[in-house]
Amino acid sequence: MDLRQLKNFVVLAEELNFSRAAVRLHISQPPLSRQVQAIESEIGAPLFERLPKGLALTAAGCTLLDDARRILGMVDAAKDRAGQAGCRAAPASSCTP
Questions:
Q1: Going by C-beta distance under 8 Å and a sequence separation of 6 or more, which residues neighbour residue 74?
Q2: Spatial CA neighbour of 43 closest among 51, 35, 53
Q3: What is the pLDDT along the chain (97 residues), one digit of tens a residue?
Q4: Is 57 helix (H, G, I), strand (E, B) or coil?
Q5: What is the SS3 assignment for 5?
Q6: DSSP string spanning 67-90?
Q7: What is the pTM of this model?
Q8: Which of 2, 62, 65, 72 has its CA 20 to 30 A from that of 41?
Q9: Is 2 in a helix, a strand, or coil?
């Protein structure tokens, strides 16, 4: 599972509709569907219940949505902090690999 898949999952979870999510993501439905299937296969549980008029999150989907939002927020914060640090050199002793 990569960050792009997580972002796309979050959009689908917010829209609960493949068509609307695909439009929002500027992709077609088949790749979005394949990404969800790949995540479900990796996790070993369905993320959505397919309904006649859209989708509903399963318990696994709700859990992943909470974690995905947290992860994506942390990634954004890390980018911001790194960008604010800019090109300043840090003393070797202050940065441990």
A1: none
A2: 35
A3: 999 999 999 999 999 999 999 999 999 999 999 999 999 999 999 999 999 988 999 999 999 999 999 999 999 999 988 888 776 666 655 655 5
A4: strand
A5: helix
A6: HHHHHHHHHHHHHHHHHHHTTPPP
A7: 0.85
A8: 72
A9: coil
